[in-house]
Amino acid sequence: MSADTKIAELLTELHQLIRQTQEERSRSEHNLLNIQKTHERMQTENKTSPYYRTKLRGLYTTAKADAEAECSILRHSLDKIAEIKSLLEERRIAAKMSGIYNENDPPRKTMRRGVLMTLLQQSAMTLPLWIGKPGDSPPPLCGATPASSDYVAKQGDKVAARVKAMDGDEQWILAEVVSYSHSTNKYEVDDIDEEGKERHTLSRRRIIPLPQWKANPETDPEALFSKEQLVLALYPQTTCFYRALIHTPPHRPQDDYSVLFEDTSYADGYSPPLNVAQRYVVACKENKKK
């Protein structure tokens, strides 16, 4: 089965799940309305009789079951969306690999800067929010939660990579994993900025995987970097990571971090607060300020 056919099937299944969600919600809204009306009658009569207690117990039991059913459908929908995104990513990687050229081939068409910045913003906005079940802990690569020590980033994954710049200095860039060699423990990564068209071979210590889920500040605040914590953050409108202090962590799932970048042009050594998405904020491996 082709990727396009599979994606079409998944989209159809997703559409059906969305309709089921709406049906489940309509049913639960009717029950919630009955709960509200029952409470209003109790207030009007100013008494809580055994009849009302039994009725409310039944209504709340039904409401709980309705909520769990809707939650199950929504989780199933999120799984379908993840499958679709995975297939789209596989298709993108395959197209990229088929376009690999050697020295004798014509150069690749360079992506316009504005288009690249838009794609990076979209990647940050569409990063899935981690929604665990009661009692679940955020997994590795959720927000500030680091990857496990034996984690190996997959082909196509975005990472922060420490490379040597043209002037000899080292810098952290946004890169895409091409491959990983278990025999040498080294990655091959491409600079995400196609203007450079550079491929780098780097050891694991020079690679930091980016978050694969956003952490929810309302349910998992421990999975976020805290105020004044030192991080590496992608400077707005660039593809490079720089050292920064967390000024304000996100307060809502859709919020960005507010960070202070190290900048000697300011009297206190830090820039004014700038917003950076969770997708592009990682732990800093260097503790000392340069």
From TrEMBL:
Coiled-coil features, chain-numbered ranges: 7-38
CDD domains assigned to the protein according to its UniProt record, in alphabetical order: Tudor_SGF29_rpt1, Tudor_SGF29_rpt2
Cellular component GO terms, alphabetical: ATAC complex; nucleus
Subcellular location field: Nucleus
Domain spans labelled SGF29 C-terminal: 149-290
Pfam family, one: SGF29_Tudor
Main location: nucleus
Gene3D superfamilies in UniProt: 2.30.30.140
The entry's keywords: Coiled coil, Nucleus, Transcription, Transcription regulation
BP GO terms, sorted: regulation of cell division
PANTHER family linked to this entry: SAGA-ASSOCIATED FACTOR 29
Protein's recorded name: SAGA-associated factor 29
UniProt source species: Umbra pygmaea (Eastern mudminnow)
